[in-house]
Amino acid sequence: MWKGRFQSDTAELLKKYSESISFDWRLYRHDIAGSIAHSKALAEAGLLTADEQQKIESGLTEIGGEIARGEFSFNRDLEDIHMNIESALTERIGAAGAKLHTARSRNDQVALDLRLYLREETDAMTNLVRDLQRALVALGEKFAHVIIPGYTHLQRAQPVFFAHHLLAYVEMLQRDAERLADARKRIDVMPLGSGAIAGSTINLNRELVANLLDFPALTQNSMDAVSDRDFACELLAAIAIMGMHLSRLSEDVILWASSEFKFITIGDAFTTGSSLMPQKKNPDVAELTRGKTGRLYGNLLSLLTTMKGLPMTYNRDLQEDKEPVFDSVDTIKAALEVVAAMFGEIEVNVPRAADAVSDSMLLATDLADYLVKRDVPFRHAHEIIGKLVAHCVEAGISFPELNLANFQIFSPQFGSDVFDLFDVRKAMNARQAIGAPSEKNVAAQLQRWREILSR
Question: Can you give the pTM of this predicted structure?
């Protein structure tokens, strides 16, 4: 590549240290697409004949097919995917292949390839997010009647519909999909034509290349175009947040599947056993997903750290962008796919959920609200119910086991209708505000998401 300037060969140690073909080979389709578009711009500018352009396009297409079939031999001495493809092309078609790199640099070439790759992968991730949302909605619909305890501080707090709990994650995933869509806008800008740093005196039609590659916008500063990896950082941030959501969802699954909770059973196909303890059934999908989130965080931090001290413009440090990007994309796609499949194999232990939600302490706040509706200030009502709870705990009884006289010891505002509060389904249906988990609201949200996700 640079034999005109150098008088001795590159050291073997440096070749091994600096090569990227071992991982950037996966950009081959995007590199070929970019090169074909570039060849058409060269032809339009009169720098390639129509025959030369056709030879380049046919040669690149042939090389792409060989790589896809595993028939192409990559050469580490050529460093990267760009030079491996260009060298093979020149060997096959001769001088026309040597003209392909006119008016471009590997600096803008790799920026283009990475954007094409991430644009494609962002769309794939969005589809997988939708699949997981559909799986959660389907499970919520299947067990729409089930109520479970909701938790704060991992302590039983208030009752919620199981579907309402799942829909909370559907909302989180929706924000993830929106972040992906927003990040895609920054990805979808065409950098080719920026050269190594300052463009070229050979002025090609960048708009033509953008149209051929379906980019809606062009980069406007050649220095920024070749050194910008903001779009990759932003996408890794979106993936890291998505990983955090999957980790939280996994934690709930792990708790629900435990012997202590027993709210759900995960299908055998998505659990594993123990090599020693024959009774074990472990929620490995959820645990692995929770663990892999750390990799997603690490990849984001790795790229941010790589970028933080770089002077303008291109520096070889930028080669370190690809492995964290590839790893995050692969990791989140695998996680989204397997978690969605796992949710298709989950069953709810309805009797266990009913037993857990029969804990009348879950309705302590409803008792406070009852007093508020009878003109007791909330802080006073809160204190009254707190004392009532302490009394029940000490006596080892539940709220329904008290009689009206017991209630009125704590407040004369209690009437005989207080016992109606301990019907948990009535309690749920009293929660009618937007976003609250009444049966009607939850059914409407399931319907809304079913319609959204069918589009």
Answer: 0.95
